[in-house]
Amino acid sequence: MTKFFQNYTIGKRIFLHLCFWLVVLGMQFVVYQRIDFSNSWILFSKDVFSLLTIFYVTAYIIIPRWFIPGKFVLCILWLIFIYAWWSFLSYFAGILTLHYLSPGPRLANYIKDVEDQGIFGAFKPSSISDYLLDFIFLVALPLTVKIVQAFMLVRSSKMELELKNAELELNNVQLELAFLKYQINPHFLLNTLYSIYVLVSDRDERGGESMMRLSSIMVYLLHESNQPSIEISREFQLLKDYVELEKLRYSETVKIDLILSAENENCMLVPLIFFPFVENAFKHGPRLSASSGWISIRIVVNNDTVYMHVSNAYRELPKPENYVGGLGIENVRKRLELHYRDNYNLEIKSEEGVFSVNLVVTLLPEENP
């Protein structure tokens, strides 16, 4: 049975539905045949038509759109509607049977009672109980099966979502550790320290300033980046410090454009979302591009939306054997999925000598008061 439902194809669904309706409608057929073997086919056809339409509209439209979301007032109105519709069909089917066929005494007496009650007999206090019993007997089995299935599906979906959330939370610590491991290039530290050493040896005033910038970066990475969210102004300061230190290495040989703008600099976001992309631009751009290398970094925060565009000149080179790369970006993807899920869009492209990254993040309400 488990294997059968694991590969639940359209053919299997049709087969199960046919078996189900053979049982349900077979029960109805037997009841009508016991009343009048030759003249009950109109009433039976009425039940087949009404039951199939009620079931499939309820199962595939009403339950997923109204019942599962909890719109119970609409569901009650739908029950009243299908009850009225079934009762009207029953009235007209009885009239046709009585006037165009020759029903036996038992069936004829039943139809005459229906005719005497009139088209609205199903809503009269004197006869509503009889109509309700017939209606419930007709629709209870198929609709109960579908409603139970819907409850099981909702419960299964909730359990699956809870398990997924638990797995994401469980992996969060591992992701954070892996991210911290790859969040800064050791070559950057080595080259920056060497550049600062040269400045200090030459008694250049920029040496002390560069040391402070490097210290600010390390404090951020070691302490502040562990917070679940941080002010955008602090994230901007990290990028400014990093870009200024990289300028020591490249001097005027690489054109660097940096634009950082936020309407509300107190808005919060997950730390270290931008840094890996900026670091990659410096790590791969100037070293692999032609002599006229360039890097463009633009991050703008408008209302509750963050727009980031990072691009650089790029020249594709063959990768060495067993090369492993993209770990920082992959960790950013996981962090975005963990914290923002459907509220972000990340696009990475490499074409015509330009490597570009576009990221759009919609901040959560608590992040942008």
What does this protein structure show overall?
The chain is an alpha+beta fold. It has eleven helices and seven strands. It has helices at about 1-5, 10-35, 40-65, 70-100, 105-115, 130-180, 185-200, 205-220, 230-250, 275-290, 325-340; strands spanning about 230, 255-260, 270, 295-300, 305-315, 345-350, 355-360. The strands form two sheets. A five-stranded mixed sheet has the order 2-4-5-7-6, covered by helices on one side. Strands 1-3 form a two-stranded antiparallel sheet. It is rod-shaped. The protein starts with a helix and ends in a 7-residue tail after the last strand.
**How many strands appear in the DSSP assignment?**
7
Report the structural category: alpha+beta
Mean pLDDT: 80
Largest sheet: 5 strands, mixed
Structural Rg:
36 Å
Q: What overall geometry do the principal axes of the alpha carbons give? A: rod-shaped
* Distance linking N and C termini: 53 Å
- Strand residue content: 5-15%
Strand order of the largest sheet: 2-4-5-7-6
Task: Give the uncertain stretches in residue-range form.
Answer: none
Specify the helix fraction band: 55-70%
Q: What is the H/E order?
A: HHHHHHHHEHEEHEEHEE
**Number of H/I helices:** 11
List the helices and strands and how they pair.
Elements: H1 2-6, H2 10-35, H3 41-67, H4 72-100, H5 105-117, H6 128-182, H7 186-201, H8 206-222, E1 230-231, H9 232-250, E2 255-262, E3 268-269, H10 275-288, E4 294-302, E5 305-313, H11 327-339, E6 344-351, E7 354-362
Parallel strand pairs: 2-4
Antiparallel strand pairs: 1-3, 4-5, 5-7, 6-7
Helix pairs in contact: 2-3, 3-4, 3-6, 4-5, 6-11, 7-8, 7-9, 8-9, 9-10
